[in-house]
């Protein structure tokens, strides 16, 4: 029986482990932290009884993931829960852009922008499964659904600010800008519309649900399935070198390219090592969890019923703030995401005390305290919020990167989603999961299709590992021994007559 070890237990690492185990591979997972989960952990960090997601919170990609649906994780306790309204983007006027899962209800509320919204997203939402069949894979492949992919690409390749010109109302433009800002980069750059188009299409196809009981429920379901398949898990073990992983046929690394450089060391081919060193990390997150009595008193009534609320004002304001952050400057009014998961999942609350999740986009490695800027942005659209806060828990950029080494400099996307790196992560290659070290593969969010709790990075990397095993490929240790033997043979052979 072939054997595999997976380093890291985020959703991608566990997804890779499950996919290998389902194909008969004996799998062992090692995790440096005391608990599994990576970016999908949950904990009571403010007051007893209030469940907060530590990083990832809303899961349009998780509900849409072809892997998660195929694994039938509901058998292991995973339950998706939806808010009444998926997302809002309030403005100072007291109005807001509003996203319902029902695209026709969304378009109707947009008035003059409704028809343009339908033209942009109706087909993509209807054919979202066809779209994910292509965009959840490496960019270099023969498209399975070229017409749907072309419809997506027509808008995705453009700057987000250009795409937003299709709409006339400031509420509609702001609604799109907030979704596009999930890419953590300039909204004026090419390809900056891609994440926004994908998230809104996913919202209309699957909504923006939460996992009942917290995002940790996704990890628990994957870990339970892995156990049923015979896989094993070990926590509190930090891997520093491939030398600690001898004896496995394949190694999968749910780590950042920087960590892969450290673990693989000089075994990496120079071209791959060069690409990993050049891999760019993007802006950071600064997170504050609040315990709020009675919920957030939004001025806009729709935001009181929305799972996700994006704060930043108009399209122009959001674009300016994201531009500043991308250039390393801290804006006075940063883009802030607020999560009200308890609206979909009341089990996270304790009586009239509710967990409210919030983070701001800040420059990479930002050392400052941004807590009051976040509170100010919430207060701007919800006067009286400060008076309702019963407790808070702050995770600075330094704390975020220390808690999860994949988040270099606080970059929770595990790599900048800008330029060619949006398409080719972590390097330009037919097989972006291969590290160039025989039998060693990268399976983190630094690989296609990128960030999000969907498991598809792990799934794709597992397929690459299985192809390697079917070909009878060597392990990294066998390759090292072979090179050492060849070098020894060359150094001890008898000289030829010519020599």
From TrEMBL:
PANTHER family: DEHYDROGENASE-RELATED (PTHR10668:SF105), PHYTOENE DEHYDROGENASE (PTHR10668). It comes from the Bacteria. This is Phytoene dehydrogenase-like protein. Pfam families: NAD_binding_8. Gene3D superfamilies: 3.90.660.50, FAD/NAD(P)-binding domain (3.50.50.60).
């Amino acid at each position: 029986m072939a054997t595999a070890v997976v380093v890291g237990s985020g959703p991608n690492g566990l997804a890779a482990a499950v996919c290998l185990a389902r194909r008969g591979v004996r799998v062992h997972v090692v995790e440096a932290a005391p608990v599994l989960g990576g970016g999908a952990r949950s904990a009571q960090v403010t007051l007893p009884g209030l469940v907060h997601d530590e990083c990832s919170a809303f899961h349009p990609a998780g509900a849409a993931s072809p892997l998660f649906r195929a694994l039938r994780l509901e058998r292991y306790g995973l339950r998706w829960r939806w808010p009444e309204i998926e997302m809002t983007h309030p403005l100072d006027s007291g109005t807001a852009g509003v996203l319902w899962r029902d695209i026709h209800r969304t378009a109707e509320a947009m008035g003059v922008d409704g028809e343009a919204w339908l033209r942009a997203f109706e087909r993509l939402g209807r054919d979202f499964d066809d779209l994910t069949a292509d965009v959840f894979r490496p960019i270099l492949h023969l498209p399975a659904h070229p017409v749907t992919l072309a419809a997506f690409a027509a808008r995705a390749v453009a700057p987000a600010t250009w795409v937003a010109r299709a709409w006339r109302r400031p509420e509609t433009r702001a609604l799109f800008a907030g979704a596009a800002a999930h890419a953590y980069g300039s909204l004026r750059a090419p390809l900056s519309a891609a994440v926004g188009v994908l998230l809104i299409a996913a919202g209309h196809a699957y909504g923006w649900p939460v996992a009942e009981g917290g995002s940790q429920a996704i990890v628990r379901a994957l870990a339970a399935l892995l156990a049923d398949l015979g896989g094993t898990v070990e926590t509190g073990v930090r891997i520093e070198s491939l030398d600690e992983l001898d004896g496995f046929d394949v190694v999968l690394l749910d780590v950042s390219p920087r960590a892969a450089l450290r673990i693989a060391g000089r075994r990496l081919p120079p071209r791959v090592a060069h690409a990993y060193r050049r891999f760019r990390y993007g802006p950071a997150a600064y997170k504050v969890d609040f315990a709020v009595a009675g919920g957030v008193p939004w001025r806009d009534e729709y935001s009181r019923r929305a799972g996700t609320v994006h704060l930043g004002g108009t399209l122009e304001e959001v674009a300016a703030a994201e531009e500043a952050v991308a250039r390393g400057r801290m804006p006075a009014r940063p883009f802030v995401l607020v999560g009200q998961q308890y609206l979909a999942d009341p089990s996270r609350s304790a009586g009239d005390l509710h967990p409210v999740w919030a983070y701001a986009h800040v420059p990479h490695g930002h050392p400052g305290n941004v807590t009051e800027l976040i509170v100010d942005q919430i207060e701007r659209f919800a006067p009286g919020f400060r008076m309702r806060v019963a407790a808070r828990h702050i995770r600075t950029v330094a704390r975020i990167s220390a808690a999860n080494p994949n988040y270099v400099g606080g970059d929770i996307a595990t790599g900048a989603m800008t330029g060619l790196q949006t398409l080719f992560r972590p390097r330009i290659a037919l097989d972006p999961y291969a590290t160039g070290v025989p039998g060693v593969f990268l399976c983190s969010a630094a690989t296609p299709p990128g960030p999000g709790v969907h498991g598809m990075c792990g799934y794709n990397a597992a397929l690459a590992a299985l192809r390697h095993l079917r070909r009878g490929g060597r392990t990294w240790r066998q390759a090292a021994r072979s090179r050492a033997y060849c070098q020894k043979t060359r150094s001890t052979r008898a000289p030829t007559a010519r020599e």
